[in-house]
Amino acid sequence: MDKIALTAGALYVIVLLRAGGTFAVGWLAGAGARRSRFAGRISSARFQRAERAIQRWGAPVVAVSFLTVGFQTAANFLAGSMRMPLPRYLPALFLGGAAWALLYATAGLGVLEVLTRLFADHPALGAAAVTLLLLAGCGAVVYRRRRAGRVLGDATPEDA
Questions:
Q1: 27: CB partners within 8 A, 6+ apart
Q2: How far is Cα 97 from Cα 11, in angstroms, rounded to an integer?
Q3: Rounded to an integer, what distance in angstroms lies between the CA atom of residue 73 and that of residue 35?
Q4: What does the pLDDT read at residue 50?
Q5: Positive or negative, the Cα torsion across 39, 41, 42, 48?
Q6: What residues contact 155, with CB distance under 8 A and at least 6 apart?
Q7: DSSP character for 158?
Q8: Which residues lie closer than 8 Å to 83 by C-beta, 6 or more apart?
Q9: Which of 17-21, 99-103, 111-115 has the lowest mean pLDDT?
Q10: Are residues 93 and 23 in contact, defined by beta-carbon separation less than 8 angstroms?
Q11: How far apart are alpha carbons 61 and 102 in whole angstroms?
Q12: Cβ contact 82:69 at 8 Å
């Protein structure tokens, strides 16, 4: 079997289980919140309008969330906690999950193959490439944390 098809298939199963599980946890959390001291807030007209909008229009958001980094878990959890109907959620899960699996299978295998060839032909250059990728990743994390800290630090007491 082709490497990309096998990898995409495995990633598809993983994303269906992970995202579906996140949706289920969100569904249970929403049910628990409806029985807690937050029930009054959740039953407000504003919250119910938002819940109806998610139930009706949330499927495209869920599908597109799979193409983002760091948003798909939140989108699936919120879709569950807002009780998006399964007939709307499942197609979004299947389409978004397929796009995610294909993207990661093709790009992931491509990067892995390039690094493998680089290490085989020029080990020092391969090590430098991996180091550069790690430093770029760490730099992005540090930048985002500092930027988030500045945004939180700019808040005035009236904003809280």
A1: 80, 81, 83
A2: 9
A3: 24
A4: 64
A5: positive
A6: none
A7: G
A8: 27, 30, 51, 55
A9: 111-115
A10: yes
A11: 19
A12: no
Per-residue pLDDT tens for 56-84?
778 888 888 898 877 788 888 888 988 88
For 66-94, b where at least 16 C-beta lie within 10 A, e where not — what string? Answer: beeeeebeebbbbbbbbbbeeebbbebbe
- DSSP letter at 67 equals T
- 52 HSE (CA, 13 A, CB side): 7
Six-digit token pair at 141?
């994390």
Tokens of 109: 């295998």
- DSSP 3-state of 117: helix
Structure tokens at 49: 């309008």
